[in-house]
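Reading a protein record of the kind used here takes little practice once its layout is understood. Each number in the token line that follows is a code from a learned vocabulary of backbone shapes. One such record is shown here in full, so that the layout can be seen directly:
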Amino acid sequence: MASEFEVPLTWGAQLARAERILAATSGQASRHEATEMLSYVLGIPEAELLACPTAPLDLADAQAYERWVARCATGEALPHITGHLEFMGLDLLVRPEDPLPPLGAQRLVEIALQRARRRYADELLVAEVGTGCGAIALALAALEPRFIRIYAVDSSPSALQTADANGARYLLNLVIGWLQGDGAEVVPEPVDLLVCARPKWTGLGQVIDMLRPGGALICVVNAGQRQVAAEWLARCFPTEPVWIEVEGNGDAIFVASRAVDLEEV
């Protein structure tokens, strides 16, 4: 890799060089990644960075930026490089070992919010299995005040530590309980919504028993899992699930509901 010092040590020149390197390795335009990394290196907003292309870049920052560009060129995820994950208006701190939400995670949150807002109860309960860095649980807590309790489950103590720290930053641990476990069995009570962005079908168990009447299971399913998911759903739910395609990446999201008890209508 050519050294960054073969081009001027200015914001614009180093940004252009990073774009060329990333485009050569990924085969597509990489302005967003290059700009976001330099913004974090400098500690300034991206708009200010782009507005001042001739501003000088000092040697230490140039060296740090070159290392980050090299990591990004190998395919390392951008949040693992910068230590920041931007998710639905939240700036979450992450470590290189923390699992990140999959591509369908934002759509999953949107569908969960739509489903919750169709419920008439003033107080709703949610569980998330496989929370990882906690992005989905945190977004749900931040965006819907009727979620009075969210149980976020993961098998990794390290990931839960990161999630708990982000919850504390946003004062959302008043709503979220971080639970260590492999599946929904650690959730202490039935919930209105059970969401999962990385479903392990054996870890979900008898999930219908974890839902309140009228509650729903909402999961992201990649193309390779779709048949397995359909067979599992046929065993666990008496009604056909609703499938929602996620545009662009081949994933789908299904929503499977538990029937409402007539006595509660």
Summary: The first strand starts at residue 84 and ends at 87.
